[in-house]
Amino acid sequence: MLMDSNALDNSSEFAFVEKRIRALTTILAKMNYHRRAPIDHQQVPSLLRYFVNLLTPSDVFSPEVKKAIAVTGAIVHDGVNERFQALVVTQNLDPPSSPTESKLEEVTKSRKSFQEIVNSHDDVPLNEYISDIWTALASFEHSTDNYIALTRFVINRCRRKLFTRIFLYQKTWHVHVAQKLADWAPEANELPETRWLDAPHWFSLISVLPEKEVPKRQQGPPDNQVTQLEFSNNTVHLWAWLLGRLILNLENHVMEAQNIENEGDALGFKRAMGEVSDWCTALYCYISWDAGVVKTLLTKTTLALKFDGSTTGGNGRDQDLYDSDESHDLGPEPYESSGGRVLRYLKGIVAWNSAISTLMKPTYCEIARNELSVSLLEIPQANYDIANLDDIYKTFINTASPKPSIVYKDLARSILQRHLPQTFPGTVHAEATLMGLLTYFTPSSSRAAFEMPLQDDHIAALDKLLEPATAENAIAVGRKCCWCCDRLRVELQEANGMRFKCPGSNGGIYPWSPPRVGVDIKVLQRLYNALFQKLHDAINEEGMYFLPWPTSDAYRGSLLSPLDIWPQQFLPISLFDSDTGEASVNADAEPLESGPNENMGV
């Protein structure tokens, strides 16, 4: 039975909506409901994007915990220097191991030297790793040896995510991407013209068989000649082969490193990870080369066609509840070519190299050398309560118009019962927490909070820390946002005018709980309405496989499925009036039966 929201105090009303949002997102996640994300033109500032890319190693320290993080911050000018002021929020993907109270700690620079940091191969907690990264960036002196050492350090700390990304093609495409690249046989006129490209320094470090060498020529005066490489119809297959071989070699070295780690050979593993890092660097150099060879191969030749129609969309039935391998992130984007998607996959593999190379630029190095203010916040899960089956089922039926059939009621209850657990398996996402905090500490905010999870001294510290960030409201995450976080961003913009810059959405729905700070109850009610409509859509889709075909004379011989006849009863709904906050119910719905047919076997 729906409750009158006017009779609830804020905390009770929040708990009411919270439990139902948890239930709906968990059901949809277990049904593997996923939709392609809309085009998003947001742009998170590069400093935040690259900074968060380096802070992804906590699953190495404790693989069973699997923390995710989000970062907000801004560069603060004090009249003389610039300093980076940031807040890192963690999201624990293993709820039972969440802390029991909020924890806010300031991260300070490490006293270790650059060499001590990069030569350490011990896995450490996230706060210590942030300190190490900050110190390494601040003390970095430009040299090839230091760049290699820092890259090896970061790749080792982030290895589990790197390994996952490298082999993600196995779930995303039905082909071996690297082998397809290496084996490609181009057509006669792939390129409109021949180009001679100045050979980059890294090219001479890669050895290939004589028959795979790209033709070269020398240009310029005798005392200052430049080596140039041919990029033409005659050589385009060699460039594709080189890309494929680099990826294949990286895969082989990763598998070798994994085997050595399993054998417990610490020294051998250190050597193997050094080789993995070096091959990542070689791949990064090729992909980021300003000649644009890789982009041309994958977007302007028939090579891209090799990946048409060979995609799974990253949405297979073997997905875990949290999409831990980020396969949803590799789903097709609007107007993206198949080759462009492969390029995005490759850029994900070398994201750490890209972050290091960018943050080593003079502008960012100078900021790192100045004072940084970085804090780490972890907010506990308040509870694991979730709406029960009767609550969700009754709401589902009572909001249907016109009256649903008995068959559809039985089907809906069976589906809901199969996918709704007894306790909530998810968390409050880190980026959702940050959106709530930034809204809460905005000067014009109403400062909504429900059973405030923050200690008083934390509130004062966060107010000061987040003040610069509220000017831009940029949030960097190590992956794309889920559907709920993206929808929360949209609802906050419509309700409060808050314009958040986030990394875009992958369209996936996972077990999700709303933040308890900064989000007004009416915003959550609108989010709840949208989720219930998603549930109607998902049950309609799943019902196509289970509903019996009509047998009456009216429909005999018809090509229509049952869902062509019955889905009209599930029109767009509003469970809460956005103006009054009151729950709405279909007044014409008949009383519920005692229960569905338990012998459906669905």
Describe this structure in words.
The protein has helices at residues 10-30, 46-54, 58-61, 114-118, 126-138, 144-157, 159-166, 169-172, 177-183, 236-263, 266-288, 293-299, 338-349, 351-359, 362-369, 389-398, 406-419, 430-440, 456-466, 483-496, 521-543, 562-565; strands at residues 67-77, 82-92, 103-107, 195-198, 216-219, 226-231, 373-378, 475-477. The chain is α+β, with helices and mostly antiparallel strands and 602 residues long. Strands 3-7-2-1-8 form a 5-stranded mixed beta sheet, with helices on both faces. Strand 1 and strand 2 form a beta hairpin. The radius of gyration is 27 Å and the shape is globular. The protein starts with 9 loop residues before the first helix and ends in a 37-residue tail after the last helix. The model is unreliable at 1-8, 58-64, 314-318 and 548-602 (pLDDT under 50).
What is the CA–CA distance across the termini?
26 Å
Mean pLDDT: 82
Per DSSP E runs of 2 or more residues, the count of β-strands stands at 8
Which band does the percent of strand residues land in? 5-15%
- Report strand order across the widest sheet: 3-7-2-1-8
Overall geometry: globular
